[in-house]
UniProtKB/TrEMBL annotation:
The lineage of its organism: Bacteria, Bacillati, Actinomycetota, Actinomycetes, Micrococcales. The chain crosses the membrane at residues 284-304. The keyword Nuclease does not apply. It comes from Dermacoccus barathri. This is Gram-positive cocci surface proteins LPxTG domain-containing protein. Residues 243-269 have a biased composition (Basic residues).
Length: 310
């Protein structure tokens, strides 16, 4: 029979493993007759795993019917199977740097370290120095007015090959500007998905917004007079103390003066003249004279009693 392939094909890997091939036992070669070209190949290739690191000789042998019968053709190749290189050590860390001005904070999120290469589209070893995905979260009431709070390469997948350093530039390209509703303490979180053993790295920053105070207008300082140089005091004698005598009580008038004052006759009141309309004028006059004399005698008796009492 005439065919377009070799009689058989074998690959020996140089160790104790069985060879791979497509031998067809039971066929024999004719020594006469027509000839025909042939070609034999392994389109999918062969795969073999060695148990230990060493140098091996791989031999490929093909069998065909040639002149005089069965013939062979060989090809050898030497391979050095070294120990598998350990996976590079990769690690990542998230950071948030910020400054505060009043109620507004300016944030710079970033990721530092190294990560494995990515697989993106047809590229099996894409070297991107950015996380797969990153997001930022803010407290309720905060308003973001600048920068990007999320991003990354969502369609990429991580590999275990190579080591790529993260881009030192901040993630969003522009700082993130956030305004808080009032003074207080707020927490902002950055979460990044990286091709490392940690897979997800995060950072929480506590931002303190101090209370605002009214701006005071500067006052012009009042010029002060120069302080006089102190002089040594000259000792002086104390002034003499003036003594005041206690004033005496006013003296009472002597008894003689009291007596003299009492001896002064007091003007006697004139008795009321009464007239007896029933009698005559003579009786009326005598009664008036008698009244005067009686009044004088009565006054003398009163003065005598007062003297005896004193």
């Amino acid at each position: 029979m005439s065919r377009y392939g070799a009689m058989s094909f074998f690959v020996d890997y140089g160790d104790d493993a069985d060879p791979d091939g497509d031998g067809r036992p039971g066929l024999t070669c004719e020594t006469t007759g027509p000839t025909s070209p042939f070609r034999d190949s392994v389109s999918s290739g062969y795969s073999h795993t060695y148990r230990k690191a060493d140098t091996y000789t791989i031999t490929a042998t093909g069998y065909y019917c040639g002149e005089g019968g069965l013939q062979t053709v060989e090809k050898a190749a030497t391979v050095n199977m070294a120990k598998p290189a350990p996976a590079p050590k990769v690690s990542a860390a998230a950071h948030i740097e910020y400054t505060v001005d009043g109620l507004t904070a300016t944030l710079v999120p970033s990721v530092t370290g190294t990560q494995h290469e990515m697989k993106y589209g047809r590229n099996k070893h894409a070297k991107y120095g950015v996380p797969l995905v990153y997001t930022m979260s803010f407290p309720e009431g905060a308003e973001v007015s600048g920068g990007a709070t999320k991003g990354g390469i969502k369609r990429a997948t991580c590999t275990k090959h190579g080591s790529v350093e993260f881009d030192p530039v901040m993630l969003s390209g522009d700082p993130v500007v956030v305004t808080f509703p009032k003074p207080g303490t707020y927490e902002v979180t950055l979460s990044a998905d990286a091709c490392t053993s940690q897979r997800i790295v995060s950072k929480a920053a506590t931002i303190a917004v101090p209370p605002t105070h009214p701006t005071l207008e500067p006052t012009t300082p009042t010029p002060t007079e120069p302080t006089p140089t102190p002089t040594t005091p000259v000792p002086t004698r104390p002034a003499p103390t003036t003594r005041f005598r206690r004033s005496r009580r006013p003296t009472r008038p002597s008894r003689r003066r009291q007596r003299r004052r009492r001896r002064r006759p007091r003007p006697a009141r004139a008795p009321k003249a009464e007239t007896d309309r029933m009698g005559d004028d003579t009786n009326a006059l005598s009664l008036g004279v008698a009244g005067l004399v009686g009044a004088g005698a009565l006054g003398g008796i009163v003065v005598a009693r007062r003297r005896l009492q004193q």
